Each structure stands twice: as C-alpha cells, then as structure tokens.
Amino acid sequence: MKDETAQSTPEGYNPPPRNSKQCKQDTCCIWSYVSGALTSAFRGPSGRCNKVARAAIRLGFHDAGTWSTSSGFGGADGSIALAPGEVDRPENNGLQDIVRRMKNWQRQYGVGMADLIQFAAIHAVVTCPLGPRMRVFVGRKDSNKPNPDGLLPGVNDSADKLIKLFNDKTIPPHDLTALLGAHTTSEQFFVDKSRSGAPQDGTPGVWDTLFYNQTLGTGPLPKKVFRFASDIVIANDPRARPEWESFSGPGGQSHWNDDYAHSYARLSMLGVNNMNDLTECSKVLPAAKPYFKGAGELLTNE
Ligand code: HEM
C-alpha cells in the first residue's frame, strides 16, 4: 500500500511504494516519504512555517557549526542528537524538542541522523513562504562522539570574534551575512526570557528580507521585534554592511535566496569528509512558494 505521507514534486517525482524493491533501489525514495512527514510537521495553519520548522533550521546550523579548520573532527555528523550531553549545552537551549522529533523520524524511516538533520533544515526553508528550494545531498556519516565545544557563536560576541569564528569554518563575512538571514523566521526564548517568543523581524515564519531592514533600523520597528546584538554588530561591520544593505534593498529577495542557498550548501558539508560519495536528492523536495500575502513591504516594490 502506498504510504500517504509521500508527495510528488515539481520534477514530477512520484516515489514507488515505500516497501517495494524499486524504492529500496533508489536512495532518494525513502527521503520522499521523510519529506511528506516534514511538510506536515513544518507548515502552520496560515501557510507560514511554524516553530518546528524554525527549530529544524537552527538545529541544522548547530549540528554542522561545531567544526573548524583546526578542530580535526565535528560538523554535520548528527552528534547533536546522538552524542550524550551535546544537546544539553547552554547554546543548544530550546533544541531538545526538535531533537526528540528527529529521533522519532529516524526510527520511523531508518535514515542517517546527520542527513536527516540537514535534509530537515533545507526542507524547512522551502516550507517557509518565499524560501528558496535548495540542493540536498545524503550519505553523511553519523557520529555519537560529542563535537568540540566553544565553536558556536554567542549573541553578545563582537563582530571581530564572530567573523573570525565563521572564517575558521571556511565561511567568509559575505556568507555569514546571508546565513544570518535565517533569523527572518526566528523567535527568541532564552536571550531575554521576559520577552519569550519575540521574533527577530515583523514577519516570523516568512522568509522575507524584512529582517535585514529591521536589523539596520531602517523604517519603523514593531515593538514586538527583538533584535539580536550579534545581528546588529555584523550588520554594521564594514566587511558585511554592503551585502546586508544589498539584501535589504530592491531585488534583495532573489539575491539573498541565491546567496543563502550557496552558503548553506557549504555549511551543511562542514566536517563531511566523504562529500564525493553523497547522492543528490533535491528531486524529492516540495515546490517553493514565491508569494505570500503580508510578506515584507519591500517585496511589493520588486
Ligand atoms: C552570529 C551567528 C549567530 C548567532 C549569535 C545566533 C544566535 C541565535 C540566538 C541567540 C537565537 C535565539 C535562541 C533562543 O533564545 O531561543 C537564535 C535563534 C535562531 N537561529 Fe541563530 N544565531 C546565529 C546564526 C544562525 C545561523 C547561521 C542560522 C541558520 C542558518 C540560525 C538560525 C536560527 C533560527 C532558525 C533560530 C530560531 C529558532 C526558533 O525560532 O526556535 N542562526 N539564534
């Protein structure tokens, strides 16, 4: 019987039944079923991406980000879910629920954890209205060894410290600027607990460029918006500012979407030493939603 969670895609990929021989012969087939489950989990009733999607995007970063050119190990290896204690580090506060969901999906579909975490981070972005449909690869190796500590950024770090931290991960300021745009969907719960649930722009759950404008302080700032100190220092640093402004200006949405996709592809491969053995499964991802009523004002001018 065909699993109801599978979905056809813009390429017209219709997976064979889950337990069939044909499905087992196609590495991407099972991911189509994973994709169906994630679509249901990530989409809110209004069509925005919901808190589960947002946590999945952050989890993708926190698993992959524990790597640097001198760390020797770590990166996108699933350790945030598999290694004892890693998810309990203070910088991972709030990720426990999404890790629990990842473990359930892994049990249900029998896929690798490192791949599942990156697949979900990429799937969550395309689930958000206006989010790009990015390329997705599977075949990473899992690890249950806690990754090096101290390689994730702090919200009160200086621009110099943040830029160095990301440079050491082979991510230059331009790419950091693109990746920080993920805060267009986000909400904070632990930086200021008295403002738990406060978003980082006026349209959480929508992948628009309003975050870039509102972090710069151009235009009115809704009271509910909570800007991260780290975003403000990067936005104002000369190594990032021109790109930041370009994302926030006319034509910024497609420029940013392209750059985010490029930069996230790199992030999702940190510490992955068998890159040439991976299989591309982009064909199982759902279609992007390039329009959404109520997305950032600038969009309407593009
Ligand atoms: C300078 C680098 C970064 C810093 C300092 C930073 C810091 C933070 C902080 C403090 C939170 C709020 C956590 C909470 O209180 O609940 C957060 C949330 C989030 N971050 Fe970042 N972040 C950075 C980079 C990134 C990157 C590169 C991505 C993804 C590519 C990302 C994606 C997210 C998402 C999606 C959330 C929202 C989670 C939710 O709504 O539950 N962040 N980040």
From TrEMBL:
GO molecular function: heme binding; metal ion binding; peroxidase activity
Occurrences of domain Plant heme peroxidase family profile (ranges): 111-184
Pfam families xref list: peroxidase
Residues that bind Ca(2+) 2: 184, 201, 203, 208
Positions of Ca(2+) 1 binding: 63, 75, 77, 79
Binding site for heme b: 183
Keyword Calcium in record: yes
Primary enzyme class: oxidoreductase
Cofactor (UniProt): heme b; Ca(2+)
E.C. code: 1.11.1.-
Location of region: Disordered: 1-23
Biased composition (Polar residues): 1-11
Positions annotated as active site in the UniProt record: 62
Keywords assigned by UniProt, alphabetized: Calcium, Disulfide bond, Glycoprotein, Heme, Iron, Metal-binding, Oxidoreductase, Peroxidase
Site positions (Transition state stabilizer): 58
Record-level GO BP terms: cellular response to oxidative stress; hydrogen peroxide catabolic process; response to reactive oxygen species
Disulfide-bonded cysteines: 28-281, 49-128
Domain of life: Eukaryota
Cofactor note: Binds 1 heme b (iron(II)-protoporphyrin IX) group per subunit.
Record has Heme as a keyword: yes
PANTHER family documented for this protein: CATALASE-PEROXIDASE (PTHR31356:SF66), THYLAKOID LUMENAL 29 KDA PROTEIN, CHLOROPLASTIC-RELATED (PTHR31356)
Family as reported in the entry's similarity comment: Belongs to the peroxidase family. Ligninase subfamily.
Name the record gives this protein: Peroxidase
Organism: Polyplosphaeria fusca
Organism phylogeny: Eukaryota, Fungi, Dikarya, Ascomycota, Pezizomycotina
